[in-house]
Amino acid sequence: MNTPPLLLAAALLFWGRQTGLLAFAVPMALILEGRRLTAWRSPLTVKQFNRISDLCTVLFAALVAYAYSTRAATAAIMSIIEWMPLSYLPLLTAQAYSVEGKVDIGALFMSRRKPVEGPRAAFDLAYPYFIICVLSAGAANVRTPEFYAGMFALAAWSLWGARPGRTPAFAWAGLLLAAGGLGYLGQRGLHDLQAVLENKGGWLLFGSGEAPSDPNWSHTAIGRIGRLKQSDEIILRVTPAPGAPPPPLLRQASFDHYNAAQWFASAADFRPLRPLAGPGGWAISPVDGGEAASISTYLRGGKGILPLPTGAARVGRLAAAAVTRNRLGAVQVEDGPGFVDYDVRFAPSSVADAPPGKIDLDLPPAERPLLTGLAASLKLNPRRPREAQAAVARFFDRGFRYSLYQEAGKVGARPLRDFLLSTRSGHCEYFATATVLLLRAAGIPARYVTGYAVQERGRLDGSFVVRQRHGHAWALVYADGAWADLDTTPSTWAGEEARGASFFEPARDLLSWALFRFSRWRWREPVSGGGQGRQRWLFGAVLLGLAWKLWSELRPAGKLTRKARSAPRPAPPGQDSELYRLERTLAAADLGRRSSEPLSDWLDRLAAPVGREAVDALRPVVALHNRYRFDPAGLSGAERRELTLAAESWLARFGPKP
């Protein structure tokens, strides 16, 4: 590689502000710089390259095991990329100090131990290693314009020696600068496009609503929960305080704007919560809750919306870099572990959501006449919100029924009108939407809420399990100066959902419980240090297993007897090569190979005294000698005779005359 090693290392040190880059930059610089010291080079056999490659495999596997044992998935991937150059440093070191200056390609594959006839392919690791270093530097640094310029300069320097000889230097440099400029504009354009799609995606796709910072919970359509209800998968476990019932509902998100059969969260940017003293404590509301429960769930990529009881006030034992909340009560975890097992204190009568506004009375124009007329027929009085809630609950309890698994594909162009006037059948999303809009039509502020119902006790540990089919929607109503839940879905819905359970549900529950216990053992209490000790133990066990596997492959097949150990070792292969006789003949004429001088350098030095033609005729002899000496497959009988005849022919033609 034509990049000066010390310059490359200095650049990586300058941009590498993380320990991973500092750990490999200095030794890499010394090793690559050491290639100039030709006296230190030595020939390496394919078997030795295989062992070094196995060592790198163990190091990389240990890196992956440690990263995933001690970090969340996203952070683990970044750590692996950051430390990857260090795990492959031994292989690059072997190449740097080998005579060949390349690595046998068979060293990288499990099929390498099979004998291969003929010359083996080899390649230079320097360029792939340089690319890995660039990726590592990108993972460990903020990608500023200065960082892009530095990476571009390093790439240009490394490619300078590979430019076509017929291309003028200024033209090649101009093309390279143009490519770098287009690359910078392209990545900036992609970044800006991503920002536009994230900020405007909700408006472009749905025509209404203001997208909050988390697009996964910025909107919901009638039928979304209906699709979730088709799964028996356990996604939550709830353990109430001793002697207390579990919270009946766990809320994830609230919505305040309805349009085209979809609910949106308007002006719902997430803001950081205040951490509390103690392990993983976060304050959700200024009041303290009187009830308590523990909730366990998984977080994809260490990020997600927390399911919380109504009136959640405090969260404890929640290991996360940041916890945020929007004005509608959704609480989001950022940079957390893959599994969370947190405590929550809550007071159902003290919901800390934003007070009602004009949008909480908004009605869709197309359904306004229907809703206002129905509210008038039910005699809903905004001055008596409690009585209005009871009247709406009686209305849906008497004339409507719950229908199972109603999907979005079965929803008409005006699903709310169809539900209220004709079908009078649907699942929770229809009841919740109609309830919110009927109360708004009567002048009572209301919001649409999605989450889960807690109603099934687990078979194995006594905790309550929440399945995807327990996904639920209900109304949040503002009455007497406070928000309160109102669920008008017929109470028979839980039994109807349970009757549709799979025959294999108990077996799947057992597997889910085993995975839950393992995840709890792995991740529980990482903020207090208990989980870290378990994770290190797991990492140590994996590392010992990998080391034993490597040792099993490399150690001899059986124990040697004392007689076998005392027997003289056989001479290394290739000691009778005719090239050694040729060397001694030339040494007598003061043309011999110097101590530790590579054969390639010796041939270059012979060009002046013996002529280029003689050196070119000697190269096939050296190639056969290297295979005879270092290749485990050795030479065939015909190739061995070819080595003898070629060496004798060269001595007869070009050797010193007596």
Walk me through the structure.
The chain has 658 residues and is an alpha+beta fold. The protein is built from 21 helices and 24 strands. The strands form six sheets. An eight-stranded antiparallel β-sheet has the order 9-10-14-17-11-4-22-21. A five-stranded antiparallel β-sheet has the order 13-5-20-23-24. Strand 18, helix 12 and strand 19 form a beta-alpha-beta unit. Helix 3 runs antiparallel to helix 4, helix 3 packs antiparallel against helix 5 and helix 3 packs antiparallel against helix 16. The relative contact order is 0.09. The N terminus is likely disordered.
Helix content: 40-55%
Overall residue-averaged pLDDT value: 75
Q: Helix- and strand-based class?
A: alpha+beta
The major sheet is characterized as:
8 strands, antiparallel
Q: Beta-strand level of the residues, as a percent range?
A: 15-25%
Unreliable spans are 1-27, 29-40, 198-218, 525-535
Principal-axes geometry comes out as elongated
Instruction: Give the radius of gyration.
Output: 36 Å
Can you count the beta strands? 24
What is the CA–CA distance across the termini? 44 Å
Count of domain modules: 3
Lateral strand order in the biggest sheet: 9-10-14-17-11-4-22-21
Tally of separate helices: 21
